[in-house]
Specification:
single chain; 431 residues; alpha/beta; 7-stranded mixed beta sheet; 4-stranded antiparallel beta sheet; 15% strand
């Protein structure tokens, strides 16, 4: 992502110091050299403080939250709600607007199924804004991860609404000439903040403006952006945003939905059971206000505590400085891929409004073979379609490899990746 804050980029020594806090980065790979981890878009590695925060919770504070009056219950509930506050502060939200989920996929589905329930008549008159049916439209983009595509396809199928999408420019960026897809029939627009394949940052302001013009709701998938650039949900102007802990240096098994409180308040519940009710009779139930209304059953308490530790870590480093450092890494990764013989870059060729997510296809070599060869040289990259088959088809390929960086990635690692990539075609009998 282009920034004018390059002077604030992390120094090489600062990056090395940060790396010492990630135990897994000291692992030795198959060729006897340290592993180069270029798969942060799939899942991020964890600093010691995150690992210790989760373990400490289990060692000293573990208990069910929002239940009981004993000391451990008070401590666990306090830690759980403190974590909610930390997530809220990190994204510029109010704690009441943060709903715990097990991941971002669940968060997206929560909104989709709430709309489906509203369409079925749940939620009364206050849920009117969420009702969709024949004649209505739901809009996404061709650049979406399947997690932000399938729920909307299914919602359209259940309700009779039309599913439509914004299309792309040849380099994979969203084509603003297709904004006219968003019209007066549109009830919701869902799109990624940054592509998990191309790294392209979406034109949020323009898409939100188009949605606002017709009164549509907006949901933003921040999974690829939230660990790599500053995020403020109110400044972004969206109605909902989803987050994934494990992509933000935090544990697996926990994510979050942010929604404007007045919208969460109007949404009917989706998953129901314990912890979501104010009162229950054999005839009907009265649900709690948000966020509790959407948090049925046992919650990922230790994971939330670990996620809070991860966000504290990111905040201490500074998201502006991380973005500036990763812009340098982005430029280096692009140079490697663009200068490699027989390698096709999927996505924008420059760093403007782009993250350090670089997908590529090697001529004549299957992505899985590419990945295995790179692994033999201790370089870890993603292989496959990255849960984005329509986007790969747009580029004329079924699958690809993807190198993605983090705040701990070094220029030396990118250089080693480039050297390994240059040997792939020769190894498999290419030129």
């Amino acid at each position: 992502m282009t920034t004018d804050r390059l002077t604030k980029a992390l120094s090489a020594q600062e990056v090395e110091d940060l790396r010492t806090q990630f135990p897994i980065l000291g692992r030795i790979g198959r060729d006897g050299k340290p592993i180069i981890y270029l798969d942060s878009s799939a899942t991020s590695q964890k600093p010691v403080r995150v690992i210790e925060a989760e373990a400490e919770f289990y060692r000293f504070h573990n208990a069910a939250v929002n239940r009981g009056t004993h000391m451990l219950g008070d401590e666990s509930t306090g830690a759980f709600e403190a974590a909610r506050e930390t997530v809220a502060n990190f994204v510029g939200a109010d704690a009441r607007e943060i709903v715990w989920t097990k991941n971002a996929t669940e968060a997206i589905n929560l909104v989709a199924y709430a709309m489906s329930n509203a369409a079925a008549g749940m939620g009364g008159t206050q849920a009117q804004r969420f009702r969709v049916g024949p004649g209505d439209k739901i809009v996404a983009t061709r650049a979406e991860h399947h997690a932000n595509l399938l729920p909307w396809q299914e919602l359209a199928a259940r309700t009779g609404a039309e599913f439509a999408f914004l299309d792309l420019l040849p380099d994979g960026r969203i084509d603003l000439e297709t904004l006219n897809v968003i019209d007066e029939r549109t009830k919701l627009v869902a799109f990624t903040h940054a592509s998990n394949v191309t790294g392209a940052v979406s034109p949020v302001e323009q898409i939100v403006a188009a949605a606002r013009h017709v009164g549509a709701l907006v949901l933003l998938d921040t999974c690829q952006s939230s660990a790599h650039m500053p995020i403020n949900v109110r400044e972004l102007g969206v109605d909902f945003a989803v987050f994934s802990s494990h992509k933000m240096l935090g544990p697996t098994g926990v994510g979050a939905l942010w929604g404007r409180y007045e919208l969460l308040e109007a949404m009917p519940p989706v998953l129901v059971g314990g912890s979501v009710i104010a009162n229950v009779t054999m005839e009907k139930s009265i649900y709690l206000p948000p966020p509790n209304r959407f948090e049925a059953g046992s919650q990922p308490v230790a994971q939330a505590v670990g996620w809070a530790a991860a966000l504290d870590f990111l905040s201490e480093v500074g998201m502006d400085r991380i973005a500036a450092h990763e812009e340098q890494i982005t430029a280096a990764l692009l140079d490697v891929v663009k200068n490699a013989d027989g390698v096709q870059l999927l996505g924008p060729a420059d760093t403007k409004n782009r993250l350090a997510v670089v997908a590529f296809a090697v001529e004549g070599v299957h992505p899985h073979d590419v990945g295995q060869y790179l692994d033999s040289e201790s370089v870890a990259v993603r292989v496959g379609h990255h849960c984005a088959i329509p986007l790969h088809k747009f580029f004329g390929v079924r699958s690809s490899n993807r190198a993605s960086a983090a705040l701990t990635t070094t220029l030396d690692e990118v250089h080693r990746f480039g050297e390994a990539l240059s040997r792939v075609r020769g190894f498999f009998g290419g030129v």
